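Escalation from tier 1.

The customer reports that the assembly of two entities below gives different structure tokens on two consecutive runs. Tier 1 could not reproduce it. I'm attaching the input and our single run for tier 2 to review.
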Amino acid sequence: MQQTTQTPQTPQAAKPKPAPPKPPAEFQEGAIATMDAAGLVRILSDSSATEFQKAKACQRAGELGAKEAVPALAALLSSEHLSTYARYGLEPIADPSAGDALRAALPKLKGILQAGVINSLGVRRDEKAVPALSRLVRDSDVNVSRAAIAALGSIGGAASAKELQTLVTRTTGLTKMSAADACLVCAERMLAAGERDQALKMYAFLSNPDIPKPARLGAMNAIISVETAPDRPR
Amino acid sequence: MTTRRQILKSAAAAPMIVPSVVLGQRAGAVAPSDKITLGGIGIGSRGAHVLSKFLNISQVQFVAICDVRNERREEIKSVADKKYGNHDCQMYDDQYDLLARQDIDAVLIATGDRWHTPLSIIAAQHGKDVYCEKPCSMTIDESWALAAAFKRYNRLYQAGCQRRNGANFILCKQLLRSGALGKLKALYANVGPSVNWPPLPSRDWLAAEELPPKQVLDWDRWLGPAPWRPYHSSYVRGGWRNFYDFHGGGILEWGSHTVDLCQWAADLDDTQPVEYEPVGTNVGPYHVNCRYANGVQLVMRDNGWDGALKTGSCSFRIEGDQGWVETGDQTRIECSDNIRPLLRPTEPASLALENHVKELVRCIAKRQPTSANAAAAANSHVVCHAAFIAYQRGKTLTWDPAKAEFTNDEIANRMRSRALREPWRV
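Tier 1 run:
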């Protein structure tokens, strides 16, 4: 059978490209890429180390899961340029000291740096942060309040669910929308934990006509999905 | 003053004339109620190519563009306004303003890779369906978050894996499914050539340059969820590729297409291989040899793309115990002799994108799942990320698909996610 042969498609043609600019020596990762935890702590604690060196040390510390680096990483959470890198380091460190450091930083920060730390607590699903996050959901900075709302949804649990439902009921606009989104995530956590009835109650709550449409439709779809699942109780 | 009652009375007395265009009765016309209203976020050269396919569909009306670069906003507005003969395309520099528009049904996202997952999820939260360029995610955990969000909001997602709608690729899949190739033994996915996209992107920074005025380029928004680094104009001109904070190297660059094809062709859209063996360095040919739990091999290789078969870029190959087929962007299908009588002419591979865009429009109208949906894209991207991590670790990694974790390397497990720059999250 005949096969048609076309000219090559070109969106991502594989041919050598012009040489890109080279990173200068001071911005090359070099030995940090293979450094052990002690070496990383030395860089992170060295006031003469550059932003670049500290950024790379943070990333390496996170990948190593270096709990020795937690205090030095925590000290960078207030840095405009390095806060993300500090969280990059702290988020994956399983040792409880990383969570302690993130929680301890919360009252010392404001604005988006505080929002970043809240996001990391949400990623870590840090249950101990729930009381502090429950206060921050009403922060006047929308980045902070929305981060706290999302983190509560991600952490889940009865206390988070109660706080989020209160917010949905008592707020309007984007805060209500964020809280409804977080309630959906919270309900998913309940389902994953085998708390089917609680999840269905949450979905029913989100099916009310005053709930923002995307979350309401999501909840109604979830009810159908849960109620028609082959493994539903009979 | 005329009352509502008077208007209704006069309306009842006079015959109602509804323009046929409103009813969609003019030949080829689409009723306004059947139009799918589209917005775009971050449309550069690739995005403009995808957008051109949307603009050719009469059912689609492109109404808004959002970009952090002023010149790009104006470029896309100009294209859309010229197409429709009006000045209606609205420009935004904040995605939330575009997504807040209730009249927009779907968005085309063609930003740099770092934005793909966060923006897609924000769009779903606003009730939008999404077409998003590949790679769809920066990490394993982003991939799962993407799939979870589109399931949560019951929105439609079409990953820019257009070869799923390419006739030559579809024929290869059909040959496997028909049994002509026998029992599946191995899949081969062409990954990005190291000459263009080494498997290990650089973790370095470029030298700092003076920031342009914010109204020309908002560097903070350009960086978005990626960690801060000093501005350099090369990043903005497309040079962000091959930097780890922005790019997944050759494995993600083409693997997001070809690994995706392998998973799709073999009906493995809901799982991942259990083993990843990296072979090679950062220069020259490289492979990642993977194995599924059922014993099927998946080989990601960059040196087969322009080999003796000349099937073109982004090729993939299926080997069964009774035959094999291979195809790529040159449309031609190569195969074992016993399969040749089963081949038939196919349409050009270049039509894949047009078909892919049309599929999304059709699915939006009928609320049906797309072929490159978020769950399928998540799985194929997790495979690519797992291979990418194995390459970075320089060792064979084993993976538990049920637990979604590596079973022999804790560092690899910590590399499944990365903190996003504040205030972004997924």
